[in-house]
UniProtKB/TrEMBL annotation:
One Gene Ontology term of the molecular function aspect: ATP binding
Taxon lineage: Bacteria, Bacillati, Bacillota, Bacilli, Bacillales
The entry's keywords: Amino-acid transport, ATP-binding, Nucleotide-binding, Transport
Protein name as it appears in the record: Urea ABC transporter ATP-binding subunit UrtE
Residue stretches making up the ABC transporter domain: 2-233
Pfam families associated with the record: ABC_tran
Keyword ATP-binding found: yes
Superkingdom field: Bacteria
Length: 235
């Protein structure tokens, strides 16, 4: 599904990612972990085409998309929920969701004014907010909106960057259940960036840990409690 191969990327003269490789298989939830500032979001932006790779390749469904624009990657089937949500605060909830339709691979769906029920059924509170501005929602509600906006395009790969950051525990539980249900359906793979060990244990199938811009460990859930692994996650 997704293969990141020996990726190098950074900002200006600074190199953040060095020789990073990881893979996400169809229907799998892969969790990317590590302390703040180790390069997780930089890797996500490189996968999405928001940051140009200096070396290495990003392969999606067998095709090299390393030089493809972010919009093209979205239309090929990659959905994205960025850190900080990045909804449009002056637009209504409905208008924010409609923007998500622009990434749909079907031109008929892109023209449709109806929000697909499959995208919002997971977040039943959103239709009651259709006329409200996105900026008037709570942080947790904005996260639900950003999640639903990404699902509207029916992605084959969903990239989630810190989806539980700064939101109330009840909505963290809701997001946990949504990720589990997506995994159980087996139609959409997920690359999840998350720092909560309890959260990733509950939803993940395979795990990578980053440190100083490189992958320092990868393995299965049962190996996460190894002290040699945990040392990369503690302050």
């Amino acid at each position: 599904m997704l293969s990141v191969q020996r990726l190098e990327a950074g900002y200006g003269e600074s190199v953040i990612l060095r020789d990073v490789s990881l893979a996400v298989e169809p229907g799998q939830v892969v969790c990317l972990m590590g302390r703040n500032g180790v390069g997780k979001s930089t890797l996500v932006k490189s996968v999405m085409g928001l940051l140009k790779a200096r070396q290495g390749r990003v392969i999606f469904k067998g095709e090299d998309v390393t030089k493809r624009a972010s919009g093209d990657r979205a239309k090929r089937g990659i959905g994205y929920v960025p850190q900080g949500r990045e909804i449009f605060p002056q637009l209504s909830v409905y208008e924010n969701l409609r923007i998500g339709m622009e990434a749909h691979r079907s031109s008929a769906q892109r023209r449709s004014k109806e929000i697909p029920a499959e995208a919002i059924d997971r977040f039943p509170v959103l239709p009651t907010f259709y006329k409200r501005r996105g900026g008037d929602l709570s942080g947790g509600q904005q996260q639900q909106l950003a999640f639903a906006r990404a699902l509207i395009s029916e992605p084959e790969l969903l990239v989630l960057d810190e989806p539980t950051e700064g939101i109330q525990p009840s909505i963290v539980d809701d997001i946990q259940e949504v990720i589990r249900s997506i995994r159980d359906e087996g139609k959409t793979a997920i690359l999840l960036v998350e720092q909560s060990l309890d959260f990733v244990r509950s939803v993940g199938d395979y795990f990578y840990i980053m440190e100083k811009g490189t992958i320092v460990w990868q393995g299965a859930r049962e190996d996460l409690d190894n002290p040699a692994v945990l040392k990369h996650l503690t302050l």
